[in-house]
Each structure stands twice: as C-alpha cells, then as structure tokens.
C-alpha cells in the first residue's frame, strides 16, 4: 500500500531510529490504539473535545463543501477506487495515530492536486473548504503532487463549522520550488484534527505555513522527510487563540538524507480566559544525515491573564557530522519598555499594544511570500486584537 521511494526506503532500513515523539507507524488501524491522553504525543490535547475523531467517530459525514481554482496546466479533482488507494502513503510515510490510519483506510476518495514537471504556476492554486455542520464528523485525504522542477503555491482555506479529521500528503519532486499555506479560520464550534506529511525531493525547496485563528480545537502535525540530498524545508506557523480555544501545532523534521536543511519559525498570541496554545517541535538527525542544517524557534505573546502557552522544542541527534543545529523558545507578556516608549510619545495604551503585536507578527507574515495572504493575515490579526479591546470596554462599563 505504501509508495516509498528507493532512497527513503534505503535510509530507513539502514538507520532504524525511532523518535520518542514520532513512533513507527502502521497502516493497520488495529496497530494504532485509541489514545488515552497519557501518551507523550497526546498529553496536551483535550481528547474530550475532539468529538471522538481521535477514536472511532464516523468519517463518512457530509459536513464540508470543497471548491477550487487553479491555473492552466494544473489538474485538481477527486479520485476514487484503485487510483485513490495507490495514493495512500505516497509521501513514503505510514500513519502513527489512529485518526490518520483510519482516514487512509476508510475514506474512499482522495482530492488530488497534480502539478506537472517543469510547470511554473502563474497564480496560487486555492482550495476552499467550507464547513456546514459541526455536529457531524468526517474525514478527508488530500494529495499535493509537484513534478520535478515545477514551481507552485497551494493555499487551503478552512472556514465554517465542521468536525474533520484530515491527512494531507505532499510530494515535492526533484528541484521543485513549492509553497503550501493552510489557513484554519474556522467558526468557533469547529474541531479540526490534521496531519500534513511532506516528502522533499533532491535539491527541492519546500515552504509550509500553518495559520490558525478559528475553531474550538485545532491540532495540526506538519512533518517532513527527504527523498535525497540537498532538500530544504521552511516550516512557518502563526496562531492567535481567544478565550477557551485550544490551538496545537506539532512539527517533525526527519533528516534522513545528507546535506538537507530545515528551518522552523512559529509565533503565537493568546488572549482571554483559558486560551491554550501548544507548540511541540522535533528534529531527528539520523546517522546518515551528515552535513545538515536545522533550527527551530517558537515565540509566544501572552496578552491577558488566564492564558497558557506550552512550548517544547526537541533535538534528537545521531551524528556529530552536522553543519549546525539549534532551537529557541520563549513565552512572555508585553515588553513594558516598548509600551512605555510608545506611550511617552503620545500613543495610547491600546494603540501601543496593537503596534507591539503587529511588530511581533510582521516579519513572520512577510516570510509567507504570498501577498494576498499577507494582507489577509494583517487584517485578521487586527480583528483578533479588536475582540480584546471590545471586551475591555464592555468590562469597564459594567
């Protein structure tokens, strides 16, 4: 069932290292037990709020509408039967969670985005996923396949109300230049459990941006492995949690080939009672992966009392022959010096806070590299800040 390239298979056979945060997977659903919350990879996730998507909830519900736009030469559409089954595990990966194994085993159709070799897409490929019913549970499988030396941007927008478990597999061909942006801008009652798995080809460049604002519970795993030397992955994330929201992002860069690179930067802000964010970063450098470079960074800005931000970077290194590896993590409130500086020049406290938050996010937003998305993100950050301002005004008047 798994479609694993020769180079990936050879590296894994020679170097059977099991990451403590990413156990060996299996396509057999029975091999992936229902999590209890005591497992390391589930201990932060509020299982009771997942509507059993992590366990055995039905995955055949009709609670989303999907549409798309694509430039000439790019094929987008659903496939079923043997064609869909052949795409299960096309990224050279076997699922290590029950929900992912169930999606690949039980969801009959796959949405395939196919970018031919050598094609340079003139505009972004946009997938619109609109939720229609959060009381119904469903599953989805998406494959983004980019031919050698192609260049393309894919944007996946999630809006509306839904409860969805999804697996997205990305195959980046040799020498390709690919950007994938996933925006979780759900309604307040949505639940989204997803796993993104990328296989980056020789000398290819891959950028993945995970952006989460809406939803009751959103958990996304963004993983990458390499299909030869010279591949580069940039993993970006931006999230903003309000009262009661749980937003969880996990990344895993598995350096299974020499002279590969990974660079991860995730930034988040929290406001409101019981707003909770989780970021878990993990990099595994296998013995074969000599000459690699990796760095992971997470920054969190706490805007009000009653919030919790968990940030856990990890490095697992099996060889000393590397160019560089490191990580950084910080969680803090507003910088009093910055606020004092702005207020001393006549800027109101609320405007000073707004400027500090924009400065916190601005450099990351610019890294996304899609102008229309950058403008949207700046607008959304402004809207999130306005929610807190309105709450303060309401509290002052009571």
Largest sheet: 16 strands, mixed
Q: Radius of gyration, Cα only, in angstroms?
A: 21 Å
Q: Distance between termini? A: 61 Å
Number of domains: 2
- Helix tally equals 6
Q: What is the succession of H and E elements? A: HEEHHEEEEEEEEEEEEEEHHH
Poorly predicted segments: 8-14, 392-398
Strand content: 35-45%
Structural class: alpha/beta
Domain SUF system FeS cluster assembly SufBD core: 136-360
Protein name: Fe-S cluster assembly protein SufD
Family: Belongs to the iron-sulfur cluster assembly SufBD family.
InterPro entries: Fe-S_cluster_assembly_SufBD, SUF_FeS_clus_asmbl_SufBD_core, SUF_FeS_clus_asmbl_SufBD_sf, SUF_FeS_clus_asmbl_SufD
Describe the structure.
Mean pLDDT is 89; it is low at 8-14 and 392-398. The protein has helices at 6-14, 81-86, 98-106, 336-343, 349-367, 371-397, and strands at residues 64-69, 75-79, 110-115, 125-146, 151-172, 177-184, 191-201, 205-212, 217-227, 232-241, 246-255, 261-270, 276-285, 293-302, 308-317, 324-332. The chain is built from six helices and 16 strands. It is of the alpha/beta class and 398 residues long. 20% of the residues lie in helices and 42% in strands. It has two domains: 6-333, no CATH class; 335-398, no CATH class. Helix 4 crosses helix 5 and helix 5 (349-367) packs antiparallel against helix 6 (371-397). It has a 16-stranded mixed β-sheet that branches. One of its GO terms (biological process) is iron-sulfur cluster assembly. Belongs to the iron-sulfur cluster assembly SufBD family. Residues 136-360 form the SUF system FeS cluster assembly SufBD core domain. This is Fe-S cluster assembly protein SufD. It comes from Nocardioides seonyuensis.
